[in-house]
Write a structure and sequence with these properties.
It is found in: Cell membrane. By secondary structure, the protein is mostly helical. The chain has two helices and no strands.
């Protein structure tokens, strides 16, 4: 997802996104297991979802 954020913001969004992804999967009753690959996919999906939400909230005026 193309965003103009600093490395610090990207790290924070990645961490929060990983937590968000795990929380959402638990809401649907899906366990992430103990494998690193499933945990990585969960974190990536959560981070992308969070970036999408941040993009909706911080959308500059005049951009469609």
């Amino acid at each position: 997802m193309k965003r103009d954020h600093s490395i610090f913001v990207n790290i924070i969004v990645g961490i929060i996104g990983g937590i968000l992804g795990g929380w959402i999967l638990q809401l649907f009753g899906i366990g992430t297991g103990s494998g690193w690959f499933v945990t990585l996919i969960t974190a990536v999906v959560g981070a992308c979802l969070l970036l999408w939400i941040v993009g909706l909230v911080t959308k500059p005026k005049g951009r469609v």
